[in-house]
Write a structure and sequence with these properties.
CATH topology of chain A: HIT family, subunit A
Strand content of chain A: 15-25%
Shape of chain A: globular
Number of strands of chain A: 15
Largest interface: A-B, 76 and 75 residues
Oligomer: homodimer
Distance between the termini of chain A: 40 Å
Number of helices of chain A: 6
Largest sheet of chain A: 10 strands, antiparallel
Amino acid sequence: MPELRLNLITREWVIIATERAKRPGDFHKAKAPRTLPEHLDTCPFCPGNESQTPEERFRLEGKDGWKIRVVDNKYPALSNIGEKKRVRMDNRRLVSGVGVHDVIIESPLHNTSPALMDLKDVKDMISIYRNRFLDAYNDPRVEHVIIFRNHGERAGTSLEHPHSQLIATPVVPVQFRDRIEAALHYFDDTGSCLMCDLAKSELKEGTRVINDTEHFVTFIPYAALSPFHTWIFPKRHSASFSRVTEEEIKDLAFHLKTLLAKLYNGIGDPDYNYVIRSSRPKDSENEYCHWYMSVVPRITMTAGFEMGSGMYINTCLPEECAEYLRSVAISKEPAGA
Amino acid sequence: MPELRLNLITREWVIIATERAKRPGDFHKAKAPRTLPEHLDTCPFCPGNESQTPEERFRLEGKDGWKIRVVDNKYPALSNIGEKKRVRMDNRRLVSGVGVHDVIIESPLHNTSPALMDLKDVKDMISIYRNRFLDAYNDPRVEHVIIFRNHGERAGTSLEHPHSQLIATPVVPVQFRDRIEAALHYFDDTGSCLMCDLAKSELKEGTRVINDTEHFVTFIPYAALSPFHTWIFPKRHSASFSRVTEEEIKDLAFHLKTLLAKLYNGIGDPDYNYVIRSSRPKDSENEYCHWYMSVVPRITMTAGFEMGSGMYINTCLPEECAEYLRSVAISKEPAGA
């Protein structure tokens, strides 16, 4: 029989549809992994084409030119120029679309991704995430910052060159407010941080854990919304990503690269999104909220039921997905484990 | 400059990204509309293959055989056999996956859809939606019912034969709870139903209205989450779809068919989902909630930003989408207008 599981952070129910169940290995793509050239003359993010990108905000230099560049998005979702205004008229609520929209070009190589990059380079990328995260909040118009990565067409990107993005919005999304509310109720009820407790439960139970080190734990959530939906939780209680330390970043890079390399090998370079869910720096001291990373491979579709209910149907048991990913070998074991 | 607009029902902000703006007509698919045969021997929903579907729950007879059939889903998300049990252990919440999963086969013809069907047949389909909606709530294990339609692969269906679905769940989705909460706060603040007031505002302003008759209004919401996202609102205050009258169903069929025919002609038979959002029959008397239909063409992708924030980026002005749809001619003007 199928079962419904509750995500305590989002309060979303997930149907684990065992009637439709697939084995984790069934998701391995039959087709060969994408093969891309190391350099593409027509790619605006490849070295030599730096003039094709808008204003550069940051550059990390390597031995033979830049290693990572942060530039304005050419087609920004929000404008970095202009005043923040609010309008309330009848039933309309309007805020001017000001904010930040960064593109983080992760490598000069056209054909790499964090699954394949050296651990050192993933660490540099995450350090830049943190720095840009802090910078974005220095803009007084900004109320919330999302860092995310779209990998492949099904994950919503048309640009092949490896890149992440940062969008800083002039409002707080209700999705974030709802998570905070759930965490606050849990704190009032128990005196503990919900995410700290979830991580402890997962470590104790063990069946959904993929990677466990000093500072982080990678696991498939009990109520994973789709096959291989994975969370990377810091073990130290911390509400804001802005407070991550250099040592933690090194460990986080190991977790992120290991997970993405296992997905690359285990299900054939799937399209995926990842995001960093975090409170703003001002709220970094709060006891009830906890930042984390969420990785969602885009290997199934959502349809009218998900749209109508907000519930998901997951055709793969979280415990089996975790077992499968634990067993996947990664060609080059990341150093610094 | 882009702008952010608030959906007062869901409290979600939408970025209307004018920098990326597209004209509504740009979404017209270049490719020819799908061409399917009227009958397919291998299709389990085509006449002659009735034995390939699980138990039949209802059949509407026509002159030459059935017109509409309701059958159990062959791969149900939820099982209709078994006891409803709840488990609470540590941080895990589990409910057994019992409920209802109907398939409503809308026509014996393999190659039709509500955009092309006769108005009378769309009306029959909606009558059956209402009857099955009421039936599903007679099951004491059921707490919430979603009726939805997935049209095309991008909308999550692989079966071409025209069909809708009904899923009855043993829990109430948080998405529904959140809408009720917003509507309740609005009622406490104003003494009115939020959806009644939204419909009145839309009718007064007029720029986003597509179709206006005695019982319903079709419009693009002020904070539409994607191009051509459309709502069909009953004008009479009513919390539950279960209370829709025969006369209203006739008018709703006209609105639904007109909208889908305009999308079919105007943007080239797009993939889409629609859902009916409604309270349960028991709550049909409540003053603050209001049932409605939501139609979402699947012509853009969501990515990491939407996943991380719950906010959407809409590249097309709602007012321009409405203007465009108003101007689209439909080959055969539905009768009964």
